[in-house]
Write a structure and sequence with these properties.
The protein is of the alpha+beta class. Helices cover 45% and strands 22% of the residues. It has nine helices and ten strands. It has a four-stranded antiparallel beta sheet with strand order 3-1-2-9. A four-stranded antiparallel beta sheet has the order 5-6-4-7, with helices on one face. Strand 1 and strand 2 form a beta hairpin. The mean pLDDT is 89.
Length: 249
C-alpha cells in the first residue's frame, strides 16, 4: 500500500487522541460550517451529511453539530471561514496539498510556511503540484464484514472505479466524485458497514522515501495535521512497511 494511504489510516486512528485536546472537534466544526454554506439540510447536501456523520463518529456533541450548521447557514453569527489550498514540497521532493479553512489568511499562510520550513519542506506556488493529484471519492469497508466478491458486485454496478484490497483491515473503494453518492448508497442498501467516506485527492505519481526522508515526512504531516486551520493534507509519498515502521518510532 502507498505511504499516503497508510497515512490516511494512521490519521483515522489518531482521531480519538486529537478529540481529547479539542483539535479534532475544531476541524469537524469547520467542515460542517463550510459544508452548510451549500444548504443546511443533510438530506439534500451530501457534503454536509458526510461531515455530520463523521462528527457523530467521533462523538461530537449534538449541540456543537447544530450550532456549526447554523453558523454555516448564517442563522447565528461567527467567524467567516475561507477555504484555501496551499501547495508545497516535502522531504525527497514529495508533492503536498494542504486544505485549510481559515478566518485569517495571513496567520494561516505564515503558519503553514513555518511548518514546511522546519520539517524539511518548502511552500510552492499555486499550481506547482496540484496537477499531480486528482479528486476522488474514497470509501472504506471493514474486511471482517464481507468478502471481496460481494464488495465488487455491489459497488462496480453503482459506478465505482476500483476496489483495493492491499490494506489488511479494510477494502478501499474508489470512485469519481460524481459517482461517490451512488456508490455509498449502494453499500448502505446492501447493509455493509462503512468505516469512512470522504472526498479526497489521489496522486498520479509517487515518490519512494528512505528512512531519513520518511521520518521527516511523517513529522511534517503530523505538524500540518495539528494546525487548527488545516482540514486535510494530501501527499504523494511511498514507503515500504519497514521504512514506515522505522519512521513511526
Amino acid at each position: 500500500m502507498s505511504g499516503h494511504s497508510k497515512w490516511h489510516n494512521i490519521r483515522l486512528r489518531k482521531g480519538a487522541q486529537d478529540a481529547k485536546r479539542g483539535n479534532l472537534f475544531t476541524k469537524l466544526a469547520k467542515e460542517i460550517i463550510m459544508a452548510a454554506k451549500g444548504g443546511g439540510n443533510p438530506d439534500t447536501n451530501l457534503r454536509l451529511r458526510l461531515a455530520i456523520q463523521k462528527a457523530r463518529g467521533y462523538s461530537m456533541p449534538a449541540d456543537n453539530i447544530k450550532r456549526s450548521i447554523q453558523r454555516g447557514t448564517g442563522e447565528v453569527d461567527g467567524a467567516a471561514f475561507e477555504e484555501i489550498i496551499y501547495e508545497g514540497y516535502g522531504p525527497g521532493g514529495v508533492a503536498v496539498l494542504v486544505e485549510v479553512a481559515t478566518d485569517n489568511k495571513n496567520r494561516t499562510v505564515a503558519n503553514i510556511r513555518n511548518i514546511f520550513g522546519k520539517n524539511g519542506g518548502r511552500m510552492g506556488e499555486m499550481g506547482s503540484v496540484a496537477y499531480r493529484f486528482r479528486p476522488i471519492g474514497l470509501i472504506t469497508v471493514p474486511k471482517s464484514a464481507t468478502d471481496e466478491d460481494t464488495i465488487f458486485s455491489v459497488v462496480l454496478d453503482a459506478g465505482a472505479e476500483d476496489v483495493r484490497t492491499d490494506d489488511e483491515e479494510n477494502f478501499e473503494i474508489v470512485s469519481s466524485p460524481g459517482d461517490f453518492a451512488a456508490v455509498r448508497q449502494a453499500l448502505e442498501t446492501a447493509g455493509l458497514p462503512i468505516t469512512s467516506a470522504e472526498y479526497t485527492m489521489e496522486p498520479g505519481d509517487t515518490v519512494q522515501l528512505d528512512v531519513k526522508d520518511a521520518t521527516q515526512m511523517m513529522r511534517l504531516m503530523e505538524r500540518l495535521d495539528d494546525d487548527d486551520d488545516v482540514q486535510k493534507v494530501h501527499a504523494n509519498f511511498e514507503m515500504t512497511d519497514e521504512v514506515m515502521a522505522a519512521a513511526s518510532e
